[in-house]
Amino acid sequence: MSTDTAVSALSRNAVHLLPESGLEAKLKLGRPLRVKLGIDVTSPDIHIGRAIPLQRMRAFQDAGHIGVLIVGDYTTRIGDPSGRSTERPILDPNAIDRDAQTYIEQAMVILDRDRTEVRFNGEWLSTLDFADVLRLTRTITVSQILERDDFANRVQANEPVSVSELLYPLMQAYDSVAIEADLELGGTDQLYNLLAGRTVMEAYGLEPQVVLTTPLLLSWDGAKMSSSVGNNIPLTAPPEEQFGRTMRIPDEMLEQWWTLVAEQPVPDTDPMDAKLELARVIVRRSHGEEAARAAEAHFTRVVREGSAPDDVEERPLPESDPVHLPAVISEAFGLSTSEARRMIGQGGVKLDGQPVEALDMAREELAGKLLQAGKRRFVRLVASS
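Given the sequence above, the corresponding structure tokens read:
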């Protein structure tokens, strides 16, 4: 394969590839490149939007290079200020350590485990003494850091910017020094931090890394994917959930999703079939072919045909009589009681297929009934013995 062809394949969907001809020069070194991707532990899950850079890392691995996955157990304690209008809250170290282990397993849905080097940046950042930190801070000026739009906007608005936030890009850059990265991957919102890595590496006498950014995958609601909002598809979510969430994509977003997630053009078919096939691709990647077929069958039966699934969970009714239905819905499906009331008012709650209007019902009226909230949530209500 020619160098130009290799660059084209490795940089598929890239927004930035800097410096120009930098990747060609790295490939001509004739050795496996060290391809860095850092992930801060800001939520329990990696969703498919955050997996787009992982897919680029896998492409490099398939070409014989080494993926260095850096789990930001240390940088997470500060929080990346990229795109933020306020400082991130300090997270619980125990939660960070717990979620970090799940991140690694989730990342392996995409990555080649045998060609992945997993590192925690606490390995080197926790060992820096004050003199080391001072040396690091001398590699970039304050004016360079304040060139970032998020910092500049906050300063102009007289909003506080903490010194720890100013140090974040330097900490991420030092990760590149510690592992001697040849190339760093990240989303477009990470461009400043990735370029800072080049500056800091050069200050430490290392050949600067190449920078490759990937586009942002928007959710079906047109917003940035967020675990806290719930408009995402976790890489290890149950097959039925992955399939159902994929089917929410509006037709006009299919091209973006196929291009970034499946890395293929949209099939020349009607939007529903294209959506179904994309859902199969997403579930198959995480759970395998059999799970993809079962998830599609579940979607067809429960959503498209409106039938209940075969294996409905049983949930005991409270002892109170009458029973406050919003409280039952809240406990059964993880909704707030206000959301449950709203669903009842909108006709979205059914008992044995019939819409429910009452908020309080006699216990005997509920026992043995199939409770449905929305299109895909079902439980069988049973009277405890």
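The CA atoms of residues 202 and 208 lie 6 Å apart. Try to locate this feature in the token string yourself.
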